[in-house]
Amino acid sequence: xxxxxxxxxxxxxxxxxxxxxxxxxxxxxxxxxxxxxxxxxxxxxxxxxxxxxxxxxxxxxxxxxxxxxxxxxxxxxxxxxxxxxxxxxxxxxxxxxxxxxxxxxxxxxxxxxxxxxxxxxxxxxxxxxxxxxxxxxxxxxxxxxxx
Length: 147
Description:
Elements: H1 8-31, E1 45-49, E2 53-59, E3 68-73, E4 76-83, E5 101-108, E6 119-123, E7 126-132
Antiparallel strand pairs: 1-2, 2-7, 3-4, 4-5, 6-7
């Protein structure tokens, strides 16, 4: 039997988020919003895991390592920073789609990690954070006995 859970508010929330993003994109220049996307969606992130670690990868093109702050507290990872406004003296802009200014994104981690063993690397505009899993979050093999 196939069972599907009806979640009417999930669709409504997705539509509200889409509408907010469109309004920010259209009216951002007049309202002081400098990022074309909602602040909760920058930077874009991928999250995956293996048996030992959780990995988070964030795209941060044009950023410098000195402009980033990374925090892990409990089950949250925070990435904060500031992208400087580009300067084009004696030039005329024809299109400005890349945002600038301060940003902060807090990501709820799907499992508990060893906060004091977290490592981060920044290469070619991609931040990779390696978060070792706590022992209780790692898979355990269960021995099965035959009677």
